[in-house]
Design goal:
GO molecular function, one term: ABC-type sulfate transporter activity
Shape: globular
Helix content: 25-40%
CATH topology of the largest domain: Rossmann fold
Bound molecules: adenosine-5'-triphosphate
CATH architecture of the largest domain: 3-Layer(aba) Sandwich
Order of helices and strands: EEEHEEEHHHEHEHEEHHEEEHEEEHEEH
CATH class of the largest domain: Alpha Beta
Family: Belongs to the ABC transporter superfamily.
InterPro entries: AAA+_ATPase, ABC_SmlMolc_Importer, ABC_transporter-like_ATP-bd, ABC_transporter-like_CS, Mo/tungstate-bd_C_term_dom, P-loop_NTPase, Sulph_transpt1, TOBE-like
Keywords: ATP-binding, Cell membrane, Membrane, Nucleotide-binding, Sulfate transport, Translocase, Transport
GO cellular component, one term: ATP-binding cassette (ABC) transporter complex
Strand order of the largest sheet: 6-7-8-3-9-10
Distance between the termini: 41 Å
Number of strands: 18
Radius of gyration: 25 Å
């Protein structure tokens, strides 16, 4: 199902939380709403769900081109998963997943055999086939979130809304679950909106990312485009570490933002190119496939550089040495815009 919202604004008192938001999500897409805390992600999700009413004068929320503004929440067929597990503690996994099916009006309620079959299929889908009889307290956080997802899917929602579903889990489990979610989505193709403040999570999981800042969408594009062609300094800065260089714009008074891995270190001036600058190696941080090298320029600016471990070994850098560095790519912006 497609979701389209047009010109949505939302205020609480004098606080404008969402400002004239337009967004179109294609059928079967997984879209991430990415932004810092307070940028309005959850509010936007709640407006789409119909839990929250947009301000007067806002445009419609359309599901498959039909205005759902006046459709009851219960009839919109939305599956929800929130950050904090909302499983029923006194029900086992099986009963939790079956809950929505059993709660249907008698006319629509499937028979007991059908419920069993459906729950089993969902248990297999979330790879917890052998845990049907366990209670939520006997599951890990990641397993509980998978059950919450299966419970949301049981009633065959037309849309899945996930609000920081992995937010309360540790980094390793989060990484595992986001890969799992991507595979699950590739299997079931239900139109999904995923709220997160984690850049890596948004880029890895989604088909398209809507980057939010102070109640507006700054960019809406596939992950690669958002990363490689950030529409604004905000997007560039939010998506990863960066260095800020002053006065390097073509007009002379610009600023350039450069990722640490887009800086190349050279031992000799000739190979470094005409724009290379000198830097003193002030710190070396090891760990994993990338080495973090901190340089200090003649004007005492710190420059963060990331090189792969093999490159680092080839360069054989030592703290206290002076090297040349050059920018591989840079994003130039008007100065006032960046600061
Ligand atoms: N019911 C409410 N009444 C007043 N202000 C609210 C209400 N709900 C949210 N806000 C405010 O709206 C702003 C956006 O909140 P929202 O939860 O949408 O942000 P978010 O991007 O999801 O942030 P987070 O990642 O921290 O959850 C915040 O400043 C918040 O304090």
């Amino acid at each position: 199902m497609t979701i389209e919202i047009r010109n949505i604004s939302k205020s609480y008192g004098d606080n404008k939380i969402l400002q004239n938001i337009d967004l179109k999500i294609e059928s079967g897409e997984l879209v991430a709403l990415l932004g810092p805390s307070g940028s309005g992600k959850t509010t936007l999700l709640r407006v789409i769900a119909g839990i929250e009413q947009a301000d007067e004068g806002s445009g419609p929320v359309l599901f498959d081109d039909v205005d759902v503004s006046d459709v009851d929440l219960g009839k919109r067929r939305i599956g929800f998963v929130f950050q904090h597990y909302a499983l029923f503690k006194h029900m086992n996994v099986f009963e939790n997943i079956a809950f929505g099916l059993r709660a249907k009006p008698r006319r629509e309620r499937p028979g007991e055999a059908q419920i069993r079959e459906k729950v089993q299929t969902l248990l297999d889908l979330i790879q917890l086939g052998n845990m049907a009889q366990r209670y939520p307290s006997q599951l890990s956080g990641g397993q509980r979130q998978r059950v919450a997802l299966a419970r949301a899917l049981a009633v065959e929602p037309r849309v899945l809304l996930l609000d920081e579903p992995f937010g309360a889990l540790d980094a390793t489990v989060r990484r595992e679950l986001r890969r799992w979610l991507r595979r699950l989505h590739d299997t079931i193709h239900v139109t999904t909106i995923f709220v997160t403040h984690d850049q890596e999570e948004a880029l890895e999981v989604s088909d398209r990312v809507a980057v939010m800042n102070a109640g507006r969408i700054e960019q809406y594009a596939p992950p690669q485009e958002v990363y490689e062609k950030p529409a604004s300094p905000f997007v560039f800065k939010f998506l990863g570490n960066y260095n800020l260089f002053h006065g390097r714009g073509q007009s002379g008074d610009g600023a350039a933002l450069v990722r640490p891995h887009d800086i190349v270190i050279h031992r000799d001036r000739d190979s470094a190119g005409p724009d290379a600058r000198l830097g003193l190696v002030s710190h070396i941080g090891f760990g994993g496939p990338v080495v973090k090298v901190e340089l200090e320029t003649e004007d005492k600016t710190h420059v963060d550089v990331e090189v792969t471990t093999p490159t680092f070994n080839d360069l054989a850098l030592k703290r206290g040495e002076t090297v040349w560095f050059a920018l591989r790519t840079q994003q130039e912006y008007e100065y006032d815009f960046v600061i």
